[in-house]
Amino acid sequence: MSYIAEIDHRVAGIPCLIGVSHYDHTEGSFSYDAPSDWDYHGHTDCDWEILDRRGRPAPWLARKINDKEEDAINEAIHRYMEN
Predict the structure, then answer these.
(1) What pLDDT score was predicted for residue 42?
(2) I need a surface site. Which of 4, 34, 35, 61 has the fewest CB within 10 A?
(3) Residue 57 DSSP label
(4) Does residue 64 contact residue 79 with C-beta atoms inside 8 Å?
């Protein structure tokens, strides 16, 4: 699979890569006449996969991801893609 980005990260203290296959971020308009909540607040849509350091899928490492780690991954992707 090809990725638009491979980002260095750690899951459970183990070095890995995040393979980002899709990323779409929309800033909110913060206008009361916005047609939907997504338009008002904005949203981010991304698809990613946990990879080992050689870039191969690492399902054994992906199983270690909890909600807090998933938030950290999404934040890392957002920082990387917005810079």
Answers:
(1) 65
(2) 35
(3) B
(4) no
Do the beta carbons of residue 58 and residue 50 sit within 8 Å? yes
Question: Residue 71: CB partners within 8 Å, gap ≥ 6?
Answer: none
Side-chain half-sphere of 76: how many Cα atoms within 13 Å? 20
Give the model confidence (pLDDT) of 28-43 as tens digits: 665 556 555 545 556 7
- For residue 46, the one-letter residue type is C
Kindly report the CATH class assigned to 5-82: alpha beta
3-state secondary structure of 1: coil
16 CB neighbour count, 10 Å cutoff: 21
- What's the pLDDT at 12? 93
